[in-house]
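EI: anyone free to look at a 332-residue chain?
SC: sure, send it
EI:
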Amino acid sequence: MKKLKNLLFIICLVVLGVSLVSCKTKGNEETKVVKIGILQLATHSALDSAREGFIDQLKEAGYVDKQNISITVKNPEGDPNTVNQMATDLVRSCDLVLGIATDAAVALQNAAEIEGKNIPILFTAVTDAVKAGLVESNEKPGKNVTGTSDINPVKEQIQLLKELLPDTEKFGIIYNVSEINSGVQADLAKAEAVNQNLECKVRTVSDASDIAATVSALISDGCTAIYIPTDNLIAANMPAVTSVTDEKKIPTICGEAGCVLGGGTITYGVNYYALGKQTANQAIQILFNNVSPSNIPVGMQTSPEELDIVINEESVNKLGITIPDSIKKRMK
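SC: here you go
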């Protein structure tokens, strides 16, 4: 009898121990914090807005940094060596990563391949994800990568230039030759210029120190307006543009609102905050609804309801431009 009691006592201890381990494991699973890494290529308003929209939408959906998720943000300020190291650090430590701008997204993709990590990779503020090698197609990404594109309504932007400045016959395009996004948009702008019976002159830069001189050269070429696609280098150095255009009374039609807020004249383009929120919804699908990135099409803003006309009143006044009623009526 005594042996039986001892045996029953031991069995009870074993059962209790297994229960405690089970409860502890379950508790750890329930409190697991998902780690999200954000690699933002540089600081300027468009990329900042995309990041803010992404984080805010996660919060609105109940996923809050330092509570049930952990968000790490890194910013190399455009330095190519630093962006690669930061990308490696993030793919090593995170469950999902987001690249804001093409070079950041490509760096994350390369780092994941080198490290042998098959983690989901999202991107935003990328104009042509196919050309950048991030996805196989916008409709069917086909990899562990998807996201949102900031492809601009370039055709409508050139039409806006013509509407704002009906007497313009020649405009200039300036962009950073190293940015794939900018080259894609410049080509689209040149094609639309032909449709609008406009002549255009393209000049590129490779460094911020080249910008002012290049803008001056375009004006010397006879350009009476400057078109600036979404370009991280130009956006971060708009004062170099406006130091010339303001003096020469030359308006700038910009690819995105950040350049307008930085001194440009007008844009009809993507809302980057909304684009960031759209990307966050993709993250939620991947992390919490078990949807594969390969099955999530690349998101875009294409309807007039999603796009914004933004005007810099100070620039308009400096240049002595009158905004047509046809443009004012379309402003939100």
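EI: The domain at 154-269+307-328 is CATH 3.40.50.2300 (Rossmann fold).
SC: 👍
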